[in-house]
Automatic annotation (TrEMBL):
InterPro entries: Azg-like, Azg-like_bact_archaea, NCS2. Its main location: membrane. GO terms for molecular function: purine nucleobase transmembrane transporter activity. The keyword Transmembrane applies. Belongs to the nucleobase:cation symporter-2 (NCS2) (TC 2.A.40) family. Azg-like subfamily. GO terms for cellular component: plasma membrane. It is found in: Cell membrane. Keywords: Cell membrane, Membrane, Transmembrane, Transmembrane helix, Transport. It is a multi-pass membrane protein. This is NCS2 family permease. The chain crosses the membrane at residues 18-38, 44-66, 98-118, 130-148, 160-185, 192-211, 231-254, 323-342, 348-365, 377-401, 416-432. It holds the Pfam family Xan_ur_permease.
Length: 434
């Protein structure tokens, strides 16, 4: 363990890495149920997508741990599965088999870009102020997700969003939030994981006494289900290579690339996972892993895989090496048979962890020179648009375009790299397509 993952060099140990892996898994595990729920609306069998989701999450996260040695979990992306279902299949009218083929071909493009180091160049082309802003924006995004999962923040026709009326469920969430915060402030080992467990246990009386669906009754009959491999190799490689499907492949390529790159850069910046040159550690191997995850997703029957922002939960618990990702990834595998077990962990249980992780991820904003307005304005836009648009991609797109525009009009063209010009072209194409 020590010789391979270099635990001492990263000031960590096996216990810390294991606890971090468990915490990241608990924060990410919702994908096992949510991904099939969305993709099944495209006509795919729920059980088949569930099996595919577990396979992608397991193999890709373990690869991230062993090959890239980074503490980041990889699983099918949420925005990408929505595009797969609502835009590609239901919107454009292509079959889900063709859409899976598009996922596969986008993964091949990713792999080529990674092998030829293009994606690494993209990472290095991101200006430092935007890197700091992306990290903070992702933190705010995670916090928003946590509040939304707890139904603390809800839609409001008059004010766009608002606070929900106080309920027993919200009181339980707030109690879990306070206790988890106390654990963190007092430096309790495994405090975030303890907060998740406490909130889960506290939610069960609510489910019994108030008749809500927060905590379902435990019945062993509903906990075990056989895996469904019916979606393996069901992709349509030939029809997905037609000209009419190219926009779908491009959308997968662009969205997945910027989601994964910005997530990876943001997490690395927040956790100081940098190499001696100040770049995210093992960047090429990490992006290659992401490319393999997308290619694998097309083969087994899922939307593209991507690095998960919820990995920040484990990173904040001290996870600094690939062992965290290996542990988190391995925990997906039993759910080939035990997927219903996840229904015992209600959304309000992981919500406090997601909310509080945001407090740690906004730290890099202190590195931005807020008095240098041609740096500050693009950074600010990138930071706030990530949660406001509910899209990491949109935040980084508008941050890039604003950076380029302001540097041009202020006579600082030398601060715009050639790769950033290329990125801007693709950003504009993505906006036009959107």
């Amino acid at each position: 363990m020590e010789s391979y993952f270099h635990l001492n060099r990263h000031n960590t140990n096996v216990k810390t890495e294991v606890l971090a892996g468990v915490s990241s898994f608990l924060a990410t595990a919702y994908v096992i149920v949510v991904n099939p729920t969305i993709l099944s609306q495209a006509g795919m069998p729920f059980s088949g997508v569930l099996t595919a989701t577990v396979l992608v999450s397991f193999f890709s996260s373990v690869m991230m741990g062993f090959y890239a040695r980074n503490p980041i979990l990889v699983a099918p992306g949420m925005g990408l599965n929505a595009f797969f279902t609502y835009s590609a299949v239901l919107g454009m009218g292509i079959s889900w088999q063709v859409a899976l083929g598009a996922v596969f071909w986008s993964g091949v493009v990713f792999l080529l870009l990674s092998l030829f180091n293009v994606r690494t160049l993209i990472v290095r082309a991101i200006p430092k102020p935007l890197r700091y802003a992306i990290a903070a924006g992702i933190g705010l995004f995670i916090t928003l997700i946590g509040f939304a999962n707890a139904k603390f923040i809800v839609a409001n026709p008059s004010t766009i969003i608002g606070i929900s009326p106080m309920t027993p469920a919200l009181l339980t969430f707030l109690a879990g939030l306070l206790l988890t915060a106390v654990f963190i402030v007092r430096n309790v080992k495994g405090g975030i994981l303890l907060g998740i467990l406490f909130t889960t246990l506290a939610s069960y009386p609510i489910g019994r006494w108030w008749g809500t669906d927060l905590a379902p009754l435990i019945t062993w009959q509903g906990l075990v289900a056989a895996p469904d491999f019916s979606l393996l190799f069901q992709l349509d490689l030939i029809n997905s290579f037609k000209l009419s499907v190219v926009p779908v492949i491009f959308a997968f390529v662009f969205t997945d690339m910027f989601d994964s790159v910005s997530t990876f850069v943001g997490l690395a910046e927040a956790a100081n996972l940098m190499d001696e040159n100040g770049e995210p550690q093992n960047v090429q191997r990490s992006l290659t892993t992401d490319a393999v995850a997308t290619t694998l997703a097309g083969l087994v029957g899922s939307s593209p895989g991507t690095a998960y922002v919820e990995s920040a939960v484990g990173i904040e618990m001290g996870g600094r090496t690939g062992l965290t990702a290996v542990v988190g990834g391995a925990l997906f595998l039993p759910f080939l048979f035990l997927a219903p077990l996840l229904s015992m962990i209600p959304p309000i249980a992981t919500a406090p962890a997601l909310v509080l992780v945001g407090a740690f991820m906004v730290r890099p904003v202190t590195k931005i020179d807020w008095f240098k307005m041609d740096d500050a304005i693009p950074a600010f836009l990138a930071m706030v648009l990530i949660p406001f648009t509910y899209s990491i991609t949109q935040g980084i797109i508008w941050g890039f375009l604003c950076w380029t525009a302001l540097k041009l009009v202020t006579g600082k063209r030398n601060e715009i790299s050639w790769m950033l010009w290329v990125i801007n072209i693709f950003a504009i194409l993505a906006i036009l397509q959107h």
